[in-house]
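Supplementary Data S3. Sequence and structure tokens for construct A.
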Amino acid sequence: VQLQASGGGLVQAGGSLRLSCAASGSISKIYVMGWHRQAVGKQREVVAAMAPDGRTNYADSVKGRFTIFRANGNNTVYLQMNSLKPDDTGVYYCNAEGLVVSAWGQGTQVTVSS
């Protein structure tokens, strides 16, 4: 499985960004798709994840502000980020997991200025 992410950038606090990640390859083996992020000097953390049946999981710090959704037959995962805060700054990575799959996309930088 290969993942291609896009959509990062620079935004002011309170603004919005949408990240997207398209999967290719053995996509039938994918179960959960999600987003992680890593800020400078911090460990990578899960931001949001979504199963094909629509169940979602969010980090407490983004609940109510971020929305994860999948489209294109569940092969593309999006992360709509609203009310962005400077603490949301970091490199965002998309991830796909299945019984025999574990794939990461290239990171995309999100910078939120105060």
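Construct B, processed identically:
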Amino acid sequence: QVQLVESGGGTVQTGESLRLSCAISGLKITNVSMAWFHQAPGKEREVLATLSRSGSVAAYQDSVKDRFTISRDDAKNTLYLQMNSLKPDDTGAYYCCIDPGTGVIWGQGTQVTVSS
């Protein structure tokens, strides 16, 4: 059974940083496309960053392009999201997901709160 477990969320002040982790079990993440999504309070879930199956191509939503970095560690079977210069609009739940070709699998989410 494939499971994704996010961690690293918390409460920070504007301008601070956090690194989210998504530990994957039951599947090797090499050759798997991966992504991070954000769901702000009262809004729909939206994609923030994606990472190609090879791990070499990343894409970002414009609002986070120069502040967030998606990466993975194949040895640790873990996906990361480095978030810098956090803003109050970044508050919400963050979800990782993978698509091994048999359907998208989601983590349970981790909460980030950015105070002004």
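The radius of gyration is 13 Å. The longest strand covers residues 18-25.
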